[in-house]
Amino acid sequence: MIRIKEIQKQLKNVVGWEQGITPDLHISEDLTESESGLYFQGGHPLCTLQNIKSTMPENYILKYSEWDETKNYLKGDKVRFNGYAWTAAADNVNTSPDVDFNGDYTADYSAETWQPFNFLEDYLQTLTDKAIADTVNRFITEKLVSRGTKNLIERLTFFDGAGRLKDTIGNNGKLVGFEIVPLRSLGVTTKIERIGLQFTGGTGVIKIYIFHSSQTDPIYTYDLNFDNQRGTFQWFDLKDCYLPNMITAEDNLNTNSGGAWYLCYNQNDLPSGMYAINFYRDWSREPCGTCNKGNLENYKLITQFLQVSPCQNYAPQTFAQYPELWDVPPVYTNTLNYGLNLEISVGCDLTDFICMQRGMFATALQKTMAYNVLKIAALNPDVRVNRFQSNVSTMDIMFEIDGNTNGRETGLKSELDTIYKALSLDTNNIDRICLTCHNGGVKYKTV
């Protein structure tokens, strides 16, 4: 199991981009940061901002959807409006991007809700994310550490079956759900594959919040469109919903290990007339083996890696607008599930180890970026007439990539092979479950 988005977030400034000299090549300072002191342009002489810009698709702006006055936009969302690209500086709805006072859409334009941005920055970030993904995936594939990424639980639900239609739970204006405490093991991560909802009496959007005890704001939020009049479970897939043992704050500076996760919804926000259906079970003890063998087997597997407890807490009147984790301990309600069921997977995860040792990937990242850039230039997938074609031929670029084929190993491909042979991450005996010492012990035999 690899949380590639988390790795991309943590490794994005291991290698930086050198600032462009001319105004049209000026990029954000965030892209020029380099923890290692290496820059992508140093990977190959042809890996320059001007050359990269020349390979961008001509209609790159069409990558973004047209601004829609009826849509809710979150901070960081990108749109196109009047032929320019914009990024949301704050959450907003029905607030259109607009020109600055002289209508030139310059970079110094300042607005509360929208900011213009240049395509080159976005394209460079896309290339950086791809280089990181390529580097990590090759490392995992080629190294013995791939043995430490096995699955421990594969798509298992908290319980089998469903609650009785008459066992409804009244809406008491509480935040209700599950407290989930993962195993205190650095290399083990829980992933929520799907969430099941069992409600009666109506349809509508149910907003699910997932908090971590170390942070006030929710880590994940999901708007689930519940539409099931039969009273059975309706299941929703959740994308990239991981509950690791170690979590890093948004500032990338504060890392918290341990703690608990809280998956909940606000009863005040349920559609009118909608009530949760309870699946009766005492979550504080082992299920009855003779009554329901399936639930007992699930319980034994799940409790090896996490502890699950239904709970509730007070919901402030402002919670819908400003969702925050409670600052008092929750009340545990061991016989209620609040109409919730989860399907989870638990697997060995190398993400935290890679992030902690990210400096060792600097050279591999630099050369992988150069390799990818030259490949794009040589293959020219967007069929552009660009400066690459006027400066060097496709054959010259392929020679820089593959090198001499007459027995002498040269070129970027050969350099990368050498780098990966030298790249190693000793994971032995780091984690007692996934990354134990594989020395085979001492063997005795007669002479």
Q: Please, could you describe this protein's structure?
A:
- This protein is α+β, with helices and mostly antiparallel strands.
- It folds into two domains: 4-143 and 356-422, no CATH class; 151-349, Sandwich (Jelly Rolls), CATH 2.60.120.
- 23% of the residues lie in helices and 23% in strands.
- The chain has ten helices and 21 strands.
- The strands form six sheets. It has a six-stranded antiparallel β-sheet with strand order 12-11-17-8-19-20, with no helix packed on it. Strands 6, 9, 13, 14 and 21 form a five-stranded antiparallel β-sheet that branches. Strands 2-3-5 form a three-stranded antiparallel β-sheet, with no helix packed on it.
- β11 (204-212) and β12 (220-226) form a beta hairpin.
- α1 (4-11) crosses α4 (119-142).
- It starts with a helix and ends in a 25-residue tail after the last helix.
- Residues 105-110 and 437-445 have low confidence and may be disordered.
